[in-house]
Amino acid sequence: MKRLGEIALQVFGILLMVASLGFAVSKAPDRSLQSLVPRWAPPPSDFLELDGQLVHYRDQGPSGDPLPLVLIHGTGASLHTWEAWVAELSATRRVISFDLPGAGLSGPNPEGDYRDARYVDFVRRLLARLGVARAIVGGNSLGGEIAWQLALADPERVAGLVLVDAGGHAFVPESLPIGFRIARTPLLREAMRWILPRRAIEASVLNVYGDPRRVSAALVDRYYELTLREGNRVALMQRMDQLGPGPVERLPEIKVPTLILWGGQDRLIPPRWGEAFHQAMAGSRLVVFPTLGHVPQEEDPAATLAALRDWLTTVKR
Question: Hey, what CATH topology would domain 33-312 get?
Answer without folding.
Answer: Rossmann fold (3.40.50)
